[in-house]
Write a structure and sequence with these properties.
The chain is 42% helix and 12% strand. The chain has 285 residues and is α/β, with parallel strands linked by helices. The termini are close together. Bound molecules: pterin-6-yl-methyl-monophosphate.
């Protein structure tokens, strides 16, 4: 018997954690900023991640890095539309990373199959309506404010209980607004209005979030708390040298029941989630 996951409407069932590969079509994302800022290189990179075993390609046109410049939806759409269209036409399953209803609409028309909203519907109240009408999966992340101010809001008495309560409230509000619970994937928002201690506490207690009954997406890839953990002579580990630690966490959170990991380097995490699935199957047999 293999371990099971809650159903997400519109996606094939898998008996393992999924891998979402990241394509940031931005000049300023913290982890790969500028590397894929033009459509051709972004498409090429997305196809490479797909070939390496990604189950979804997450295309974003606005950086959420702490202190990042906000991008107008028209500019965001100009960045992502050709990339989403080309990846979907090539047969990749694409998710659109946006907080804006108009960008989600453009991306869904271009062939995206999933909407990933780091604000969980809090920035643009029209976005949940677009998702409800399209009937596609909706990734709802824990969010406390835009990246220019979010770290001022990294204050919790009990981070696990507070993130759980906030995600539970978003789930209820979105279902009340017309989404089906089966469309919703929850995400603790690692690094968003959270310091390293908060991130580790959440990762250590994913079971408290899984208890909400919806699948969990976890995004730790190359984030600062890994740079701090692996620091040498007080210098954080370089961003591009955080992929081994990211893959290690992919294995651990997948073994703990996460439904999807969002990563920049796909190959190692694709192996890691298979190792985790085999362990989960053994545990549940
Ligand atoms: N992290 C980033 C961007 N989008 N989406 C979800 N659902 N979860 C995350 O943790 C998340 C996200 C920031 O990372 P990047 O700038 O490297 O893409």
């Amino acid at each position: 018997m293999s371990a099971t996951y809650p159903i997400v409407r519109g996606l094939p069932t898998l008996d393992r954690c999924r891998v979402m590969g990241v394509v940031n079509v931005t000049p300023d994302s913290f982890s790969d900023g500028g590397a894929f800022a033009d459509a051709d290189s972004a498409v090429k990179h997305g196809l490479q991640l797909w070939a390496e075993g990604a189950d979804l390609i997450d295309v974003g046109g606005e950086s959420t890095r702490p202190g990042a410049t906000r991008v107008a939806p028209a500019e965001e759409q100009a960045r992502v539309e050709p990339v989403v269209a080309a990846l979907a036409a090539a047969g990749a399953m694409v998710s659109i990373d946006t907080m804006h209803a108009s960008t989600a609409r453009v991306a869904l028309r271009a062939g995206a199959s999933v909407v990933n909203d780091v604000s969980g519907g809090l920035v643009d109240p029209d976005l949940p309506r677009v998702v409800a009408d399209a009937g596609v999966p909706y990734v709802v992340m824990h969010w406390r404010g835009h990246s220019d101010h979010m770290q001022e809001r990294a204050s919790y008495t009990d981070v696990v209980a507070e993130v759980r309560a906030a995600l539970s409230a978003r789930l209820d509000a979105l279902v009340a607004a017309g989404l089906a619970a089966e469309q919703i994937v929850l995400d603790p928002g690692i690094g968003f209005a959270k310091d390293a201690e908060h991130n580790w506490a959440l990762l250590a207690h994913l079971d408290a979030l899984l208890d909400l009954g919806r699948p969990l997406l976890v995004g730790v890839s190359r984030k600062s708390f890994l740079g701090a953990l692996l620091a040498d002579d007080a210098e954080p580990r370089a961003v591009v040298d955080r992929d081994d630690a990211t893959a290690a966490l992919s294995a651990l959170v997948a073994a703990g029941g996460a439904w999807c990991v969002r990563v920049h380097e796909v190959r190692a995490s694709a192996d890691a989630v298979r190792v985790a699935a085999r362990l989960r199957t053994e545990r549940s047999s």
